[in-house]
Design a protein that fits this description.
transport, 869 residues, two-stranded antiparallel ribbon, globular, 4 strands, single chain, mainly alpha
Length: 869
């Protein structure tokens, strides 16, 4: 019997407006009651029945979430609900009063193209006035945006499968877009409040000597820093929306393609991820390049008596902070949403009820699928955006500092090199995406090739081209008359970074793919119970921190040594190229970031496609293809998390160095070392380490509390509606979506504010302590120690959480292939328990720490003047 076949008559449909959703202008419609088949009137069909159902309604309804907020919510008539093709009310979100969206919708296509053309011309003119290099960067980025739009059109041209598939997809899309609007509405309010605080802080801080000599006043500095912060926050939000927009439209097309061949489904998912990856990286480079060009033109850089080009990168720190601020809350909110729904769905559905994953009888299944988009796609797009923005800005700051220390005549090559590298990233990643074709002839019932191997072939194409492009860029931009042949050393630094990226991908795959021993050992431990599964997973996670730390250590030392021996020296003859060498290594590691994000977004798209296939009851052969893609997606998500923490570690090292350079610029005194033998400085380091653990605790606990509500709700629906298990009643999916959304928005605030406020509070407190005890620059020094220890602890904690969670997930997948008893066995139940423990590790706390360690560095860059005497 097909689930929910036919039309239900005599329903009573109630609409609940959750207070936390209504406060941000979003209304959730949910079917809260469906009468049992034996109690309903005779069925009818067609439009007349649907109109009759819409005319009914009434009564009162108060949910547990209503009680939690202290009051019952207003109810609306069933006529205001949205109905699917079978007459069912479906969960939809309605956005109210968005003036920007109304203006855009009122314009025709020609007007939009005209506005876009004018904006492009203005941007290119700004770039050309700054430098031909910036002009070329902007031109290539715009071309890659056009190519990304081509990928989107190619994906959207694919069919959406059966009507049942489309209904499930529409519910997922409505839920994801509604939560995104609500979440980012909350984030935007916090961003506006913080922008006011930043403006006030900069109004009371003195400019650097160079800025003061160029005539930049406090008001000007406050205005441009606040503007940069808001621009970074806006672009980061756009990056998150792009990641979510494509995933909620590609999932059903991947499911439709899986009805034909596995290779076509793989290609559709990969190109959808490619659209997201290329758009995010292009927007990052465009944002930084345009802001740099704008400041150069506004302040007359290059003319006598005006700001020197070496000092312009310091004006960009607000952009990086804005990107980090939004990415942190996006990752927290999205991570809490996706894992609370996932844990609740698995514990009750799989373990207690014994139904398959993504079974349509599970009331939390739509919330789980929505969470894949808002957590794994939207949040990851914002995460990568701020990673690249932070790395580019810190490298530009170090490049400008190197130019001043070495007394070089031509500064543009060192300062603009990061922008050129990431422009090449777009080109090589596009080539890698196009190299994965859809020519395989394997059908649904034939053996298929390993999708991960196919994607790695595309990654190999990108890396090969990146090496060629990186070497060419080093020769053209980093060959300096003052240090002949130094470009070879910096090219070596880039190779170190590329090798580090590949090493991280391989190490993470080894510890999280069930093809290898570590994950299989967790699956084997599941045969003896839930406890041994947890012990094995924790042990694997702890072990997995060793190899990545060794790789990072070798990479930093090698890059620093290559930079030091490049021949660049200061006026006293001392080598000074080491820090810039580590910056070049970080650029090398991120030189294929667009393709890595492509593989990352592939994962949740494939996961959603599997859910759509399961809920629409497609043939088993189709489900086998989506299961294969889903398993590969778990591996790609895990490997890209390893890549992300590796790049975050190197980027945080750069940001730490940039912070020390900024303190030196403001004070006019050297600030090159931090003495942790000073008690206050050591305490600052201890507090930094503690912050990482407390932050992780808040994130995991938030998932736990939210998941408890979902578990109780799913149990209640199974108990109160026994017809759900026999397909005679339809679960209330929208109610679970509403509960998880409200909880995620509430729970993301505490860990986010902890991360933002802690470094500022510590810097201010120890500034006062230094003033009282007569210790010069104590506030700035303690913050440096805080930042250093938080980075080290964060790297280790993130590695543990990411790898342990990924290993638990794939151990469950391995058991579901038939190992150790397969689905429904005691080993499978233990593996599901391990997976639920690992869910907040790998998808909430772990990825949030990636953002945390970079946001701590960017906030100290922006707030550095507060810590100075």
């Amino acid at each position: 019997q097909r689930p929910f076949a036919g039309n239900f008559a005599n329903r009573q449909i109630f609409v609940q407006r959750q207070g936390i959703l209504a406060s941000t202008g979003v209304v959730l419609h949910t079917n809260s009651m469906i009468q049992a088949p034996g109690q309903r009137a005779a069925q009818s069909s067609g439009t007349a029945e649907k109109q009759e159902v819409r005319a009914r309604g009434g009564g009162a309804y108060s949910s547990p979430m209503d009680k939690a907020h202290g009051s019952s919510r207003d109810l609306e008539e069933a006529a205001s609900a949205t109905y699917d093709k079978k007459g069912y009310p479906v969960p939809t979100y309605q956005a109210r009063g968005n003036p920007i969206k109304r203006i855009i919708n009122s314009l025709d296509t020609k007007a939009l193209y005209g506005i876009a053309t004018v904006c492009c011309i203005v941007a290119l003119m700004l770039g050309y006035q700054t430098s031909p290099i910036v002009f070329g960067v902007l031109l290539v980025c715009m071309g890659m945006l056009v190519f990304a739009m081509y990928l989107a059109q190619w994906v959207l041209a694919k069919d959406e499968g059966t009507p049942d598939m489309q209904e499930v997809s529409e519910a997922i899309r409505d839920g994801a877009e509604g939560f995104f609007k609500t979440q980012y509405g909350t984030i935007s309010k916090m961003s506006l409040l913080l922008s006011v605080i930043i403006y006030l802080i900069y109004m009371f801080r003195p400019p650097t000597p160079e800025q003061e000599a160029a005539g930049i006043t406090r008001t000007t500095l406050a205005t441009i820093t606040t503007f940069s912060f808001l621009l970074g926050a806006m672009c980061s939000s756009a990056a998150g929306y792009i990641g979510m927009w494509v995933s909620v439209r590609a999932n059903v097309r991947v499911a439709g393609a899986a009805r034909r061949t596995a290779r076509e489904a793989l290609q559709v998912a990969l190109r959808a991820g490619g659209f997201s990856g290329l758009m995010v990286v292009a927007m990052t480079v465009l944002g930084v390049a345009l802001l740099f060009s704008l400041f150069c033109v506004l302040f007359g850089v290059g003319t006598e008596g005006n700001l020197d080009i070496n000092d312009v990168p310091l004006l960009l720190v607000g952009y990086g902070f804005g990107a980090s601020f939004v990415a942190l809350f996006a990752q927290l909110g999205g991570g809490i949403f996706t894992k609370a729904a996932d844990v609740g769905a698995d514990l009750v559905g799989k373990v207690e009820a014994g139904i398959p994953e993504d079974d349509p009888r599970n009331p939390a299944v739509i919330a789980d699928l929505v969470g894949d988009n808002v957590g794994d796609c939207s949040a990851r797009g914002a995460d990568l955006f701020e990673s690249i923005a932070a790395e580019v800005i810190s490298a530009m700051i170090l490049g400008g500092s190197l130019v001043k220390k070495a007394g070089l005549d031509d500064a543009l090559g060192l300062i603009l090199f990061p922008l050129v590298v990431h422009t090449l990233d777009l080109v090589v990643s596009a080539a890698g995406i196009l190299s994965v074709g859809g020519t395989s002839s394997a059908g649904p019932k034939q053996p298929v090739e390993d999708p991960y191997s196919v994607m790695k072939q595309g990654y190999s194409v990108s890396i090969s081209l990146a090496i060629i492009g990186f070497g060419t860029s080093c020769y053209l931009m980093l060959e300096l008359p003052e240090a002949p042949g130094c470009w070879i050393n910096f090219f070596g630094c880039g190779l170190v970074g590329i090798a580090t990226a590949y090493s991280f991908v391989w190490i993470t795959q080894y510890y999280t793919d069930y093809k290898y021993r570590p994950v299989r050992s967790i699956a084997e431990a599941s045969t003896t119970g839930h406890g041994t599964n947890i012990i094995a997973g924790v042990g694997l996670g702890l072990e997995s921190t060793c190899a990545p730390v060794l790789v990072i250590s070798v990479a930093v030392c090698s890059a620093y040594w290559l930079g030091q021996t490049s021949g660049l020296v200061d006026k006293a003859g001392e080598p000074i190229g080491g820090l810039f060498g580590t910056a070049v290594a970080t650029m090398g590691m991120l030189s294929t970031a667009a393709y890595v994000l492509t593989m990352d977004v592939f994962g949740p798209i494939a996961d959603n496609a599997g859910g759509i296939v399961e809920m629409s009851q497609q043939p088993e052969s189709v489900r086998e293809i989506t299961d294969l893609l889903d398993a590969v997606g778990n591996t790609t998500k895990a490997t890209t998390k390893g890549y992300a923490i590796g790049s975050a570690a190197l980027a945080a090292f750069l940001l730490f160095s940039a912070y020390m350079d900024e303190v030196s610029s403001f004070t006019g005194k050297p600030f090159t070392s931090v003495d942790i033998a000073v008690p206050e400085v050591w305490i600052g380091g201890l507090l930094g380490s503690m912050l990482v653990y407390l932050f992780s605790s808040y994130a995991c606990s938030a998932v736990g509390r939210s998941a408890q509500a979902v578990v109780n709700e799913v149990r209640d629906q199974f108990l109160q509606r026994p017809g759900i298990m026999t397909y005679q009643e339809k679960p209330d999916y929208a109610r679970c979506v509403s509960m998880v959304a409200a909880s995620a928005l509430r729970e993301m605030i505490k860990p986010g504010l902890l991360a933002v406020c802690a470094p500022v509070a510590i810097g201010l407190v120890f500034r006062v302590v230094g003033w009282v005890t007569g210790q010069e620059l104590l506030g700035a020094t303690v913050v440096a120690s805080f930042l250093m220890f938080a980075t080290v602890s964060g790297i280790l904690m993130a590695l543990f959480l990411n790898n342990a969670g990924g290993a638990w997930d794939n151990a469950k997948k391995y058991v579901e292939t038939g190992a150790f008893g397969g689905k429904g066995s005691e080993a499978h139940k233990a593996a599901v328990t391990g997976d639920t423990v690992g869910d907040p590790f790998k998808d909430t706390a772990g990825p949030s720490i990636h953002v945390l360690i970079k946001m701590l560095a960017t906030i100290t860059l922006v707030m550095a003047p507060l810590f100075l005497d």
